[in-house]
Amino acid sequence: AHLPFRVRRERLRCDKAQIRAKPTDTPRTARRPTGGGRSVLSALLSPVLGRFSVVKRCDHRGTKRAVAVKHVNKKLMRRDRVTQELNLLQRLQHPHIVTLIDTYETPSSYALVLEMADQGRLLDYIVSWGNLTEEKVACYLRNVLEALHYLHNCRIAHLDIKPENLLVSHTASGQPIVKLTDFGDAVQLNSAHYVHPLLGSPEFASPELVLGEPVSLTSDLWSLGVVTYVLLSGASPFLDESAEETCLNICRLDFSFPRDYFQGVSQAARDFVCLLLKTDPGRRPPAGLCLQEPWLQAGQGDGRTVGALGGSAECGGGGR
């Protein structure tokens, strides 16, 4: 059977250069602070070659609209896996989730035509703006939590929350909003006993995923806790020399807030990280409760510069 939707390929004119790809392994952000971490910037700004897919910027000839086309290699990904992602995307409509526009097939790939996030990946966007403040970190995180709150109300777990899957678009007024993308690992949790395979780097994976135990909706909140740490410090809390050592750090909850990386970061921000990084999934708050945390409320930040990333852009958005 064909995918549910088809478009004529000639309606799309694509650039040769890829704009994003699903990596064989998650690009290394920064080493653990306790290991003399390095900048988060270089690896995330370098080109990423895809194992399963490559995403290209295309122009839709009919509407003149820029779109992103995700080509999934048929030799590397079964049709049912792609159809699962497609079926989920078709059901979703939220301002902080990248929209599926259409689909088609080529002899070698399945293609998903997606909304174009005109400002690219979140970390790239932050780097381009200079100094990053704690208030803006909270603003970006609110956008992601709005998306997760919506997904989790639908009993959908994303299971691949990481910086590479957070994109930025500008509103009509020029304010950035963060959008969640890449639902290749997402799953409808109709059972309490779904075990998800650990693919690629475990850097942002929850302890239950690492241990091969059933995942839950709050598995996404653990991953967001790791993302929060990265945004605040420019370093990764659990990443180590090997996947095995990284997994051990995750399962032992072996992380800290070194002064060199968290100079100027408020205690409220650190407490929010600790709130999410709980080994027991049942002790992590759901996305809706996270949105009520005072640190995440608009205007609560004091404007202090944080981390090693940078940023002076305002933040827009607001979910439904």
Secondary structure elements and their pairing?
Blueprint: E1 12-23, H1 41-45, E2 50-60, E3 65-73, H2 79-91, E4 100-105, E5 109-115, H3 122-127, E6 132-133, H4 134-153, E7 156-157, E8 166-170, E9 176-180, E10 187-188, H5 207-210, H6 219-233, H7 243-251, H8 259-262, H9 267-276, H10 287-290, E11 305-306
Helix pairs in contact: 4-6, 6-9
GO molecular function, one term: ATP binding
Domain Protein kinase: 41-296
Pfam family, one: Pkinase
How would you describe this structure to a colleague?
This protein has helices spanning 41-45, 79-91, 122-127, 134-153, 207-210, 219-233, 243-251, 259-262, 267-276, 287-290; strands at residues 12-23, 50-60, 65-73, 100-105, 109-115, 132-133, 156-157, 166-170, 176-180, 187-188, 305-306. The chain has ten helices and eleven strands. Helix 4 (134-153) packs antiparallel against helix 6 (219-233) and helix 6 (219-233) packs antiparallel against helix 9 (267-276). Strand 2 and strand 3 (65-73) form a beta hairpin. 28% of the residues lie in helices and 20% in strands. The chain has two domains: 9-30 and 48-115, Phosphorylase Kinase, domain 1, CATH 3.30.200.20; 122-306, Transferase(Phosphotransferase) domain 1 (Transferase(Phosphotransferase), domain 1). It has a five-stranded antiparallel sheet, covered by helices on one side. The chain is an alpha+beta fold and 320 residues long.
